[in-house]
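Dear colleague,

Thank you for sharing your sequence with our group. We've completed the structure prediction you requested, and as agreed, I am returning the results in plain text so they can be pasted directly into your records. Please verify that the sequence below matches your submission; if there's any discrepancy, let me know and we will rerun it promptly.
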Amino acid sequence: MDEKARGIPDFPVRLRTLLEHMILSHHGELEYGSPKVPVFPEALLLHHIDNLDSRMECMRSFLQKDRYVDGCWTGFNSILERSILKKRRYLEESAPVPLRAQEAVAGESTETVVRTPPPQPMHAPRVPQQSPFAEKLIGALRKDG
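Please find the predicted structure tokens below.
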């Protein structure tokens, strides 16, 4: 990163420091081997994006390598601390899966209640605003290209 930043004429030193911090703190926690914890919003965001990407890849890979042929669940994944739903298999099953079933009482039929979540309200899309950090970074990168 240092070499690339030096190759951009008049790249701001303070901006380079912030970029270095983002790289050094992207693991987010000292316990996970990060030499620094994120100390400004974009660094924290990068950490969470990196963490999300890692967890999604772990889940995708675990589903792909799953050895359980039957059923809608994988074995237990110790990294994610859960079993993973095989969504395609779950959706392909013909019978609905009840969320709550009442026991049959003598002389009465069994009642099965299947609940669907209520529709979520639609919100207007939020227009992102650029932070001062983003503005400086975009400005510095435009000088190069």
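Summary note from our side: The helical segments are 2-6, 13-24, 41-65, 87-92, 132-144.

Kind regards,
the structure core
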